[in-house]
Amino acid sequence: MQPHIAQQEIKQRLNEYCWGYDSNDMALLGSVFTEDAISAVTVAHRDLSWGPWRGKTSIVQALSDIRNSQQDRRRHAIGTFIFDTFSGQRATARAYATLFSYANGQPPHLVALGEYSLTAVNTNTGWRLERLEEIMDSPF
Amino acid sequence: MSTDHIDWTQAQAALNVLYQYAHAYDAGNAQMMETVFSDDAISGGVVTNSSLCWGPWTGGGNISSHLKTLRESQQDQRRHQITTPIFTLLTREKAIIKAYVSVFSTPIGGQSALVTTGEYQVHFSRKGGAWKIDRLDGVLDGEF
Fold first, then answer.
1. Which of A15, A114, B97, B105 is most exposed, with minimal Cβ within 10 Å?
2. Do the Cβ atoms of B114 and A110 come within 8 Å?
3. CA distance, residue B89 to nearest chain A CA (Å)
């Protein structure tokens, strides 16, 4: 597989993760991970973090709980994707996240910026995320 | 999401057409805008929790003309930033993309600010080797 073809699929996995979280579609969110994936969320320069969660089931449950505690609508806008390593079977990449919120009488507004760092592996069902870390620049 | 029906070789080419739509609108370039739509395309949109909407308009030339009029009613610089695209269908001839849009405005001599966020659902087909938009539906989270 050509690297740029595989990289499109890996980008799609991260974007599906964001759509899954934002629309509270936990089946879609879970589908992007390997069974033994690990994931965590931290806020830079603060003693604030969630996870790490180990295993797809734990990740989905934890993120579902967080999502259900948020009464607004969120949009995780992803861009500025770069691949640090790519072997055909394994890739590491980073992307910027811009988090917006709306609803509850509030117009759309910026909540926080941050970045994702991921490891993707080529499985027999396509590329899946084995590791996903979200580092936000401020609380969200 | 199953990706059995995804032909990733076509992904960037289809995405480029959506990006071209954003650039064409922001630049007020009706000629470029007309090239992104198929002749029988349909496009429109709504604002969540509002009666505000645009379209639906039918026909690439008609859509382009309406969007030009809408753009000319806005005196600021607009930037439609397209992010987080996902393909729900992508073959060599058809594609469906969902993507987020963040709309920013900069008044002449003023400061840039977020106007609204939202999402697009876009249906494409490849005609004569070129990807065209057959249907573009927008849902914005606030007024624009």
1. B105
2. yes
3. 12
Q: ipTM of this predicted complex?
A: 0.95
Chain A residues whose CB is inside 8 A of the B6 CB are 9, 12
Sign of dihedral through CA atoms A140, A68, A13, B5?
negative
pLDDT at position B4 over 80: no
What count of other Cβ atoms lies within 10 Å of the Cβ of residue A55? Answer: 15
pLDDT attached to residue B1? 57
| Conformation bin of residue B84: beta by default, left when phi > 0, alpha when psi is -120 to 50 | left
Which of B85, B86, B88, B118 lies closest to B102, judged by CA? B118
Is B64 in contact with B34 (CB distance < 8 Å)?
Answer: yes
Task: Flag whether the pTM goes above 0.80.
Answer: yes
The tens digit of pLDDT for each residue in A79-96 reads 999 999 999 999 999 999
CA distance B26 to B110: 17
d(CA B117, CA A14): 19
In the DSSP assignment, the letter for residue A4 is: H
SS3 content of chain B, % helix, strand, coil (to 5): 30, 50, 25
- DSSP letter (8 states) at residue A71: -
Pairing of strands A48-54, A33-43: antiparallel
Q: Do B81 and A8 touch (CB under 8 A)?
A: no
Quick one: which H or E segment has residue A79? Answer: strand A73-86
CB B37, CB B11: distance < 8 Å:
no
DSSP structure class, residue B109: T
Our measurement of the distance from residue A11's CA atom to the centroid of its chain's CA atoms, rounded to an integer in Å, reads 10
How many angstroms separate the Cα of A79 from the Cα of each of A11, A82, A93, A114, B85?
Answer: 9, 9, 12, 11, 10
> In three state form, how does the secondary structure of B65-106 look?
HHHHHHHHCCCCEEEEEEEEEEEEEECCCEEEEEEEEEEEEE
